Predict the 3D structure of the following.
Amino acid sequence: MKTICLRSRLHTANLFAILIAFMSLGTSADTCWAQNAEQAAQTRMVLVRAGHLVDAATGTATPNQDILIERNDRTGRGVIQAIGRNLDVPPGTEVIDLSDHYVTGGLVDAHDHLAITYKEEPESNQYYFTTLMDSTPIRAIQAFSTGFQKLASGFTIVRDLGNNGLYADTALRHAIEQGWVPGPTIINAGIIIGAFGGQFFEIPEREDTVYPEYLNADTDDEIVKAIRRNIHYGAKVVKVCVDCQAYPYTTEQLELFVSEAANAGRKVSGHVQTREGARRAIEAGLWSLDHDNALDEELHAMMAEKGIWRVGTETPKTEWARTSDARWERRLAMLRDAYDQGVKLAFSTDADYFIRGLDRGELTLEFIETWKAAGIPDADILKVMTTNGYEISELENERGPVREGFMADLIAMRGNPLEDIDALYDVDFVMKDGLVFKHDGVVAPMDFFHNGPAYGWRVR
Ligand SMILES: [Zn+2]
């Protein structure tokens, strides 16, 4: 490897470059040696002994299951090799004893914004002011922190749907996927695309404040350009503000969103806040409708028929949530109606604010209270938080389900979440990509940190 590195330098026709190459020979040889060592295959075997393995898709818990995982520290992948009772263990296998735990796949939050946290001070919970006061760099660091907190509560996948400054969400995703830091698998939207003004109410003197929180796209050309721009800068899903202004997108425009996103293999997630906007989004065949205030029985029936995901904002009624009784009752009734009509449901929070005393993961978990209050059975809540989450994230064939050939993203707790969903409040073990992130309730993630893109800079 030393010679290859040296030769590649000597290929440079420029004599000056050759001179520099020889001057820096010592350094480059060291670098090459490091690369060589790093490229050596680095695999090891890990066995998780599960007291019960919970399959949320079928609502079953199988006792005494071993999960054998091959972890590759070069690629960052940890893949489940075998599952069964009393598996033969290769020599040198690390054994993790969770024989008094219920083990299942990681949880999914289908709607959050990791790189924004609005708060009482200094912006009076007006996120418009947050975007003026927090730079993208500080928001990217916040994003790492909020993602880390969610992972500690068992959320191994997050759909991160915009309001992330100038692509702090892409930066977070790259940092996690390249191996710089631990975090959930991120399905990010880049910049939210909207009609003039986005979700802001600007003044003519400051009409440029919309960017970079929103990309204005009013014409067909602008819509296509905005989608391509987002995808170029790392978006995995397209987020459109369907009806945030008095001039909502037409059904035809929303169909253009769908076809242009599909051209790049992406789905469209639509923020809806009016009944007419929701109706158009359903007609156009968006992948998901985000927020539930505008949805009703009739729209639910349309969504169920077309298989469109309902990504509600199931904020619980608690000390910290200012929810009126009327709004709370409607939220529960409509969630229950969507469940009864067989609408595809996601667990989704929009929990992008600071509540003192709760970390972001703990805050996210509290949304379970709404599902309980709506009378959804515990096993179905777990299914929504796992199986449905993998599907809306389009990861269901790759990670999430605990199956052979899938990535080893596991959580564990002492109680059975199929019978008591509150068990999820006590997730005390988290594994991501075959690496232990949390064990015995202690987060000790040093294995996830690297001083370089350990899994490859081209992992994007
Ligand atoms: Zn949101």
